[in-house]
Specification:
Keywords: Signal. By secondary structure, the protein is mainly α. It contains 2 helices and no strands. It has helices spanning about 1-45, 45-80. The longest helix is centred in the N-terminal third of the chain and has 44 residues, at about 1-45. The relative contact order is 0.04. The mean pLDDT is about 75.
């Protein structure tokens, strides 16, 4: 009885793997094709340049905001008497 259950489980796993692996291989090719086509469309329409500009502005504003917050945390720690922040 145990051998029969084990055999059925092996058959189920084998059939699921044989059905999943070819589908995933086809999916990656279509994904790569989609990415290249989308990149071409974005380049031709000019939206690629604008999205890169938006991302660079966003990242610089996040860095400025982070540095301002770190300065504020430093001031608060100094005022409360902490000389050094210990990280464990």
């Amino acid at each position: 009885m145990m051998k029969k259950i084990l055999f059925l489980m092996v058959i189920c796993v084998a059939t699921s793997l044989t059905s999943i692996l070819p589908a995933s291989a086809q999916n990656s090719d279509k994904t790569d094709e989609y990415k290249t086509l989308l990149k071409k469309i974005m380049t031709l329409s000019g939206s690629s340049a604008s999205s890169e500009a938006i991302m660079s502005q966003f990242m610089s504003s996040m860095q400025r905001d982070l540095s301002n917050k770190m300065r504020l945390i430093g001031k608060i720690l100094q005022q409360s008497g902490h000389r050094r922040l210990k990280i464990k």
